[in-house]
Amino acid sequence: MSEKPLLSVRGLTTEFTTPEGKIARALEDVSFDVMHGQTIGLVGESGSGKTTTLMSLMRLLPAGGRITAGRVMFNDTNLLSLTEREMRDYRWKSMAIVFQGAMNALNPVMKVGDQIHEAIMLHNLMDEDAAEKRVRDLLEMVGIARTRRDQYPHQYSGGMRQRAMIAMALACAPDLLFADEPTTALDVMIQAQVLQLLKEIQKALGLAIVLVTHDLGVVAEVCDSVVVMYGGKVAEYGTADHIYNEAQHPYTQKLLEAFPDVTKPGDTLASIPGTPPRLTNLPPGCRFEPRCHVKVAKCSQVNPPLLEVSPKHYVSCILREGAEADLR
Ligand SMILES: Nc1ncnc2c1ncn2[C@@H]1O[C@H](COP(=O)(O)OP(=O)(O)O)[C@@H](O)[C@H]1O
Ligand SMILES: [Mg+2]
After folding, report:
1. Which residues, at least 6 apart from 196, have a Cβ–Cβ distance to it below 8 Å?
2. Ligand 1: distance of its center to the CA of 52 in Å?
3. 179 and 165 within one domain
4. Residues less than 5 Å from ion ligand 2, measured at CB
5. pTM for the whole thing?
6. Nearest to 77 by CA among 8, 177, 28
7. Within-domain flag for 321
8. Is 110 part of any domain?
9. CA–CA separation, 120 vs 111, rounded Å?
10. Radius of gyration of the chain (CA)
11. Which domain holds residue 259?
12. What pLDDT digit, counting tens, does each position of 220-268 carry?
Protein backbone atom coordinates (compact mmCIF):
# COMPACT_ATOMS: atom_id res chain seq x y z
CA MET A 1 0.00 0.00 0.00
CA SER A 2 1.53 3.29 -1.05
CA GLU A 3 1.35 6.44 1.02
CA LYS A 4 0.03 8.44 -1.91
CA PRO A 5 -3.76 8.69 -1.87
CA LEU A 6 -5.80 6.96 -4.54
CA LEU A 7 -8.23 9.87 -4.51
CA SER A 8 -7.45 13.31 -3.21
CA VAL A 9 -10.28 15.84 -2.96
CA ARG A 10 -9.40 19.48 -2.34
CA GLY A 11 -11.63 22.51 -2.02
CA LEU A 12 -14.53 20.85 -3.82
CA THR A 13 -17.35 23.36 -4.17
CA THR A 14 -20.64 22.53 -5.87
CA GLU A 15 -23.66 24.73 -6.52
CA PHE A 16 -27.17 24.12 -7.76
CA THR A 17 -29.45 26.60 -9.43
CA THR A 18 -32.88 25.95 -7.94
CA PRO A 19 -36.06 26.07 -10.04
CA GLU A 20 -36.70 29.54 -8.53
CA GLY A 21 -33.34 30.68 -9.88
CA LYS A 22 -31.61 30.81 -6.51
CA ILE A 23 -28.10 29.48 -5.98
CA ALA A 24 -27.76 26.69 -3.40
CA ARG A 25 -24.18 26.08 -2.33
CA ALA A 26 -24.49 22.36 -1.62
CA LEU A 27 -20.75 21.82 -1.08
CA GLU A 28 -18.10 24.27 0.03
CA ASP A 29 -14.40 23.60 0.25
CA VAL A 30 -14.73 19.85 0.80
CA SER A 31 -11.34 18.14 1.22
CA PHE A 32 -10.33 14.60 2.12
CA ASP A 33 -8.12 11.75 0.91
CA VAL A 34 -8.97 8.15 0.15
CA MET A 35 -6.01 5.82 0.57
CA HIS A 36 -5.61 2.57 -1.37
CA GLY A 37 -7.64 -0.23 0.17
CA GLN A 38 -9.15 2.07 2.78
CA THR A 39 -12.75 2.56 3.83
CA ILE A 40 -13.66 6.14 4.52
CA GLY A 41 -17.03 7.09 5.95
CA LEU A 42 -18.94 10.21 4.89
CA VAL A 43 -21.37 10.89 7.67
CA GLY A 44 -23.88 13.65 8.35
CA GLU A 45 -27.55 14.42 8.63
CA SER A 46 -29.84 14.25 5.65
CA GLY A 47 -29.10 17.24 3.40
CA SER A 48 -25.50 17.67 4.56
CA GLY A 49 -24.16 17.06 1.05
CA LYS A 50 -23.08 13.42 1.14
CA THR A 51 -24.76 12.35 -2.10
CA THR A 52 -23.73 15.60 -3.79
CA THR A 53 -20.13 14.83 -2.86
CA LEU A 54 -20.27 11.42 -4.56
CA MET A 55 -22.10 12.76 -7.59
CA SER A 56 -19.53 15.55 -7.92
CA LEU A 57 -16.66 13.06 -7.72
CA MET A 58 -18.30 10.86 -10.39
CA ARG A 59 -19.19 14.00 -12.39
CA LEU A 60 -22.78 12.81 -12.50
CA LEU A 61 -24.49 15.89 -11.06
CA PRO A 62 -28.12 16.34 -12.07
CA ALA A 63 -29.14 19.29 -14.27
CA GLY A 64 -28.70 22.60 -12.49
CA GLY A 65 -25.69 21.35 -10.57
CA ARG A 66 -22.09 22.34 -11.26
CA ILE A 67 -18.70 22.17 -9.62
CA THR A 68 -17.45 25.73 -9.20
CA ALA A 69 -14.08 25.09 -7.55
CA GLY A 70 -11.73 22.37 -6.42
CA ARG A 71 -9.47 19.60 -7.52
CA VAL A 72 -10.18 15.87 -7.59
CA MET A 73 -7.00 13.89 -8.15
CA PHE A 74 -7.45 10.23 -9.02
CA ASN A 75 -3.86 9.01 -8.84
CA ASP A 76 -2.17 11.67 -11.01
CA THR A 77 -5.19 12.82 -12.96
CA ASN A 78 -7.40 15.76 -12.08
CA LEU A 79 -10.85 14.39 -12.91
CA LEU A 80 -12.25 17.90 -13.07
CA SER A 81 -10.05 18.78 -16.05
CA LEU A 82 -11.04 15.75 -18.15
CA THR A 83 -13.43 16.01 -21.05
CA GLU A 84 -16.72 14.15 -20.63
CA ARG A 85 -15.44 11.50 -23.00
CA GLU A 86 -12.24 10.99 -21.00
CA MET A 87 -14.24 10.90 -17.78
CA ARG A 88 -16.28 8.01 -19.16
CA ASP A 89 -13.15 5.85 -19.08
CA TYR A 90 -12.89 6.40 -15.34
CA ARG A 91 -16.51 5.72 -14.46
CA TRP A 92 -17.17 2.07 -13.68
CA LYS A 93 -13.63 1.02 -14.66
CA SER A 94 -11.74 3.06 -12.06
CA MET A 95 -14.53 4.24 -9.79
CA ALA A 96 -18.04 2.89 -9.48
CA ILE A 97 -21.06 3.82 -7.43
CA VAL A 98 -23.88 1.99 -5.71
CA PHE A 99 -26.52 4.70 -5.81
CA GLN A 100 -28.76 5.64 -2.91
CA GLY A 101 -31.90 3.48 -3.12
CA ALA A 102 -30.20 1.32 -5.76
CA MET A 103 -31.79 -1.91 -4.62
CA ASN A 104 -35.07 -0.64 -5.99
CA ALA A 105 -33.49 0.39 -9.28
CA LEU A 106 -33.19 -3.12 -10.73
CA ASN A 107 -35.28 -3.67 -13.82
CA PRO A 108 -38.30 -5.68 -12.60
CA VAL A 109 -38.85 -7.51 -15.90
CA MET A 110 -35.29 -8.65 -16.48
CA LYS A 111 -33.47 -11.54 -14.83
CA VAL A 112 -30.90 -10.32 -12.31
CA GLY A 113 -28.08 -12.27 -13.99
CA ASP A 114 -28.96 -10.72 -17.35
CA GLN A 115 -28.80 -7.24 -15.82
CA ILE A 116 -25.33 -7.88 -14.49
CA HIS A 117 -24.34 -9.42 -17.82
CA GLU A 118 -25.57 -6.34 -19.63
CA ALA A 119 -23.65 -4.03 -17.29
CA ILE A 120 -20.46 -5.98 -18.04
CA MET A 121 -21.02 -5.91 -21.80
CA LEU A 122 -21.78 -2.21 -21.72
CA HIS A 123 -18.47 -1.24 -20.16
CA ASN A 124 -16.05 -4.02 -21.06
CA LEU A 125 -14.49 -5.35 -24.19
CA MET A 126 -15.34 -8.96 -23.42
CA ASP A 127 -17.07 -11.70 -25.35
CA GLU A 128 -20.35 -13.23 -24.23
CA ASP A 129 -18.76 -16.31 -22.65
CA ALA A 130 -16.23 -14.33 -20.66
CA ALA A 131 -18.97 -11.95 -19.52
CA GLU A 132 -21.10 -14.88 -18.38
CA LYS A 133 -18.19 -16.27 -16.40
CA ARG A 134 -17.79 -12.85 -14.83
CA VAL A 135 -21.50 -12.80 -13.88
CA ARG A 136 -21.00 -16.11 -12.06
CA ASP A 137 -17.85 -14.88 -10.31
CA LEU A 138 -19.53 -11.65 -9.25
CA LEU A 139 -22.61 -13.44 -7.92
CA GLU A 140 -20.39 -15.79 -5.97
CA MET A 141 -18.38 -12.87 -4.61
CA VAL A 142 -21.50 -11.20 -3.21
CA GLY A 143 -22.88 -14.48 -1.87
CA ILE A 144 -25.77 -15.05 -4.28
CA ALA A 145 -26.28 -18.70 -5.21
CA ARG A 146 -25.76 -19.58 -8.87
CA THR A 147 -29.27 -21.00 -9.03
CA ARG A 148 -30.58 -17.47 -8.52
CA ARG A 149 -28.94 -16.15 -11.70
CA ASP A 150 -32.12 -16.48 -13.69
CA GLN A 151 -34.52 -15.12 -11.11
CA TYR A 152 -36.24 -11.75 -11.25
CA PRO A 153 -35.71 -8.95 -8.71
CA HIS A 154 -39.05 -9.61 -6.96
CA GLN A 155 -37.80 -13.12 -6.13
CA TYR A 156 -34.88 -11.58 -4.24
CA SER A 157 -34.98 -10.24 -0.68
CA GLY A 158 -33.97 -6.60 -0.09
CA GLY A 159 -30.53 -7.68 1.08
CA MET A 160 -30.02 -9.80 -2.04
CA ARG A 161 -31.09 -6.96 -4.32
CA GLN A 162 -28.53 -4.73 -2.63
CA ARG A 163 -25.89 -7.44 -3.08
CA ALA A 164 -26.80 -7.66 -6.76
CA MET A 165 -26.31 -3.89 -7.11
CA ILE A 166 -22.91 -4.22 -5.45
CA ALA A 167 -22.05 -6.99 -7.92
CA MET A 168 -23.05 -4.71 -10.77
CA ALA A 169 -20.89 -1.87 -9.46
CA LEU A 170 -17.96 -4.31 -9.38
CA ALA A 171 -18.56 -5.39 -12.99
CA CYS A 172 -15.50 -3.56 -14.33
CA ALA A 173 -13.24 -4.21 -11.32
CA PRO A 174 -12.95 -0.60 -10.12
CA ASP A 175 -10.25 0.53 -7.67
CA LEU A 176 -12.70 2.72 -5.80
CA LEU A 177 -16.29 2.01 -4.82
CA PHE A 178 -18.73 4.68 -3.69
CA ALA A 179 -21.61 3.25 -1.69
CA ASP A 180 -24.41 5.71 -0.93
CA GLU A 181 -26.40 4.57 2.14
CA PRO A 182 -26.06 0.93 1.08
CA THR A 183 -27.70 -0.40 4.23
CA THR A 184 -30.20 2.31 5.14
CA ALA A 185 -33.31 0.60 3.80
CA LEU A 186 -32.42 -2.80 5.26
CA ASP A 187 -33.26 -4.23 8.64
CA VAL A 188 -30.52 -4.39 11.24
CA MET A 189 -29.44 -8.00 10.74
CA ILE A 190 -29.30 -7.65 6.97
CA GLN A 191 -27.42 -4.34 7.37
CA ALA A 192 -24.72 -6.17 9.28
CA GLN A 193 -24.48 -8.80 6.54
CA VAL A 194 -24.13 -6.22 3.77
CA LEU A 195 -21.42 -4.40 5.75
CA GLN A 196 -19.64 -7.70 6.32
CA LEU A 197 -19.85 -8.34 2.58
CA LEU A 198 -18.30 -4.95 1.80
CA LYS A 199 -15.48 -5.70 4.21
CA GLU A 200 -14.85 -9.09 2.61
CA ILE A 201 -14.90 -7.68 -0.91
CA GLN A 202 -12.53 -4.95 0.11
CA LYS A 203 -10.11 -7.46 1.53
CA ALA A 204 -10.36 -9.80 -1.45
CA LEU A 205 -10.03 -7.08 -4.10
CA GLY A 206 -7.95 -4.46 -2.30
CA LEU A 207 -10.68 -1.98 -3.10
CA ALA A 208 -11.01 1.46 -1.56
CA ILE A 209 -14.52 2.31 -0.40
CA VAL A 210 -16.24 5.60 0.32
CA LEU A 211 -19.20 4.66 2.46
CA VAL A 212 -21.95 7.25 2.81
CA THR A 213 -24.24 6.91 5.78
CA HIS A 214 -26.15 8.89 8.36
CA ASP A 215 -25.51 6.02 10.78
CA LEU A 216 -22.55 6.45 13.14
CA GLY A 217 -22.75 2.79 14.15
CA VAL A 218 -22.12 1.69 10.57
CA VAL A 219 -19.14 4.03 10.37
CA ALA A 220 -17.66 2.77 13.63
CA GLU A 221 -17.89 -0.78 12.43
CA VAL A 222 -16.14 -0.52 9.09
CA CYS A 223 -14.37 2.79 8.52
CA ASP A 224 -10.65 3.56 8.85
CA SER A 225 -11.29 7.27 8.63
CA VAL A 226 -14.31 9.50 8.81
CA VAL A 227 -15.48 12.76 7.21
CA VAL A 228 -18.21 14.43 9.25
CA MET A 229 -20.23 16.77 7.03
CA TYR A 230 -22.48 19.60 8.10
CA GLY A 231 -24.34 21.98 5.80
CA GLY A 232 -22.17 21.11 2.80
CA LYS A 233 -18.87 21.57 4.61
CA VAL A 234 -16.48 19.19 6.30
CA ALA A 235 -16.91 19.78 10.03
CA GLU A 236 -14.28 17.28 11.07
CA TYR A 237 -12.10 14.74 9.35
CA GLY A 238 -9.72 12.23 10.86
CA THR A 239 -9.08 8.61 11.66
CA ALA A 240 -11.92 6.67 13.26
CA ASP A 241 -9.98 6.98 16.50
CA HIS A 242 -9.83 10.79 16.21
CA ILE A 243 -13.54 10.99 15.55
CA TYR A 244 -14.68 8.54 18.21
CA ASN A 245 -12.18 9.32 20.95
CA GLU A 246 -10.89 12.86 20.34
CA ALA A 247 -13.69 14.68 18.55
CA GLN A 248 -13.13 18.44 18.60
CA HIS A 249 -15.96 19.85 16.54
CA PRO A 250 -19.04 20.63 18.68
CA TYR A 251 -21.22 18.98 16.01
CA THR A 252 -19.24 15.73 16.12
CA GLN A 253 -19.35 15.82 19.90
CA LYS A 254 -23.13 16.25 19.84
CA LEU A 255 -23.50 13.39 17.40
CA LEU A 256 -21.50 11.11 19.63
CA GLU A 257 -23.36 12.21 22.73
CA ALA A 258 -26.66 11.49 21.04
CA PHE A 259 -25.43 7.96 20.21
CA PRO A 260 -23.33 6.63 23.04
CA ASP A 261 -23.38 3.12 21.66
CA VAL A 262 -21.75 3.78 18.29
CA THR A 263 -21.06 0.10 17.78
CA LYS A 264 -24.75 -0.56 17.37
CA PRO A 265 -25.91 0.03 13.80
CA GLY A 266 -29.38 1.38 13.26
CA ASP A 267 -29.32 4.62 15.19
CA THR A 268 -29.76 7.83 13.22
CA LEU A 269 -28.60 11.40 13.60
CA ALA A 270 -31.91 13.17 13.85
CA SER A 271 -31.86 14.04 17.53
CA ILE A 272 -29.75 17.21 17.72
CA PRO A 273 -32.10 20.17 18.32
CA GLY A 274 -32.53 22.69 15.48
CA THR A 275 -32.34 22.35 11.73
CA PRO A 276 -29.46 22.50 9.22
CA PRO A 277 -28.85 25.81 7.37
CA ARG A 278 -30.72 26.77 4.20
CA LEU A 279 -28.16 26.42 1.46
CA THR A 280 -29.68 29.23 -0.60
CA ASN A 281 -29.26 31.64 2.29
CA LEU A 282 -26.14 30.71 4.18
CA PRO A 283 -25.09 32.63 7.27
CA PRO A 284 -21.79 34.55 6.97
CA GLY A 285 -20.24 32.70 9.88
CA CYS A 286 -20.12 29.06 10.86
CA ARG A 287 -23.01 26.97 9.53
CA PHE A 288 -23.39 25.16 12.81
CA GLU A 289 -23.45 28.37 14.89
CA PRO A 290 -27.26 28.55 15.33
CA ARG A 291 -27.27 25.05 16.85
CA CYS A 292 -23.94 25.20 18.65
CA HIS A 293 -23.78 24.81 22.42
CA VAL A 294 -20.33 26.38 22.82
CA LYS A 295 -20.47 29.28 20.33
CA VAL A 296 -18.90 32.68 20.94
CA ALA A 297 -19.78 36.02 19.26
CA LYS A 298 -17.16 35.61 16.52
CA CYS A 299 -18.75 32.35 15.32
CA SER A 300 -21.55 34.22 13.57
CA GLN A 301 -19.02 36.27 11.56
CA VAL A 302 -16.18 33.90 10.67
CA ASN A 303 -16.66 30.99 8.27
CA PRO A 304 -14.12 28.59 9.76
CA PRO A 305 -11.61 26.88 7.43
CA LEU A 306 -10.68 23.24 7.83
CA LEU A 307 -7.48 23.23 9.88
CA GLU A 308 -5.17 20.46 11.00
CA VAL A 309 -5.23 20.14 14.80
CA SER A 310 -2.95 17.11 14.99
CA PRO A 311 -1.48 14.88 12.27
CA LYS A 312 -4.32 13.81 9.93
CA HIS A 313 -7.00 15.29 12.17
CA TYR A 314 -8.83 18.30 10.71
CA VAL A 315 -11.47 20.48 12.32
CA SER A 316 -13.50 23.38 10.98
CA CYS A 317 -14.18 25.39 14.14
CA ILE A 318 -12.53 28.57 15.37
CA LEU A 319 -12.61 27.16 18.90
CA ARG A 320 -10.53 24.09 17.99
CA GLU A 321 -7.25 23.56 19.76
CA GLY A 322 -3.79 23.81 18.27
CA ALA A 323 -4.80 24.37 14.64
CA GLU A 324 -1.80 24.57 12.37
CA ALA A 325 -1.86 24.00 8.63
CA ASP A 326 -4.66 24.25 6.15
CA LEU A 327 -5.57 21.08 4.24
CA ARG A 328 -4.57 22.23 0.76
N1 LIG B 1 -30.88 18.37 -7.85
C2 LIG B 1 -30.76 19.34 -6.90
N3 LIG B 1 -31.22 20.59 -7.12
C4 LIG B 1 -31.07 21.56 -6.19
N5 LIG B 1 -30.48 21.39 -5.00
C6 LIG B 1 -30.01 20.17 -4.73
C7 LIG B 1 -30.11 19.07 -5.64
N8 LIG B 1 -29.55 17.99 -5.08
C9 LIG B 1 -29.11 18.38 -3.87
N10 LIG B 1 -29.37 19.70 -3.67
C11 LIG B 1 -29.02 20.48 -2.49
O12 LIG B 1 -27.92 19.88 -1.85
C13 LIG B 1 -28.25 19.58 -0.49
C14 LIG B 1 -27.55 18.34 -0.09
O15 LIG B 1 -28.18 17.24 -0.66
P16 LIG B 1 -27.57 15.79 -0.64
O17 LIG B 1 -26.20 15.82 -1.17
O18 LIG B 1 -28.54 14.92 -1.33
O19 LIG B 1 -27.53 15.47 0.93
P20 LIG B 1 -27.39 14.07 1.69
O21 LIG B 1 -27.00 13.04 0.70
O22 LIG B 1 -26.33 14.34 2.73
O23 LIG B 1 -28.71 13.82 2.33
C24 LIG B 1 -29.77 19.51 -0.45
O25 LIG B 1 -30.28 19.87 0.78
C26 LIG B 1 -30.17 20.50 -1.51
O27 LIG B 1 -30.23 21.79 -0.95
MG1 LIG C 1 -27.98 11.31 0.18
Report:
1. none
2. 6
3. no
4. 50-51
5. 0.93
6. 8
7. no
8. yes
9. 15
10. 20
11. 7-94+174-315
12. 889 999 999 999 999 999 999 999 999 999 999 998 887 655 445 444 4
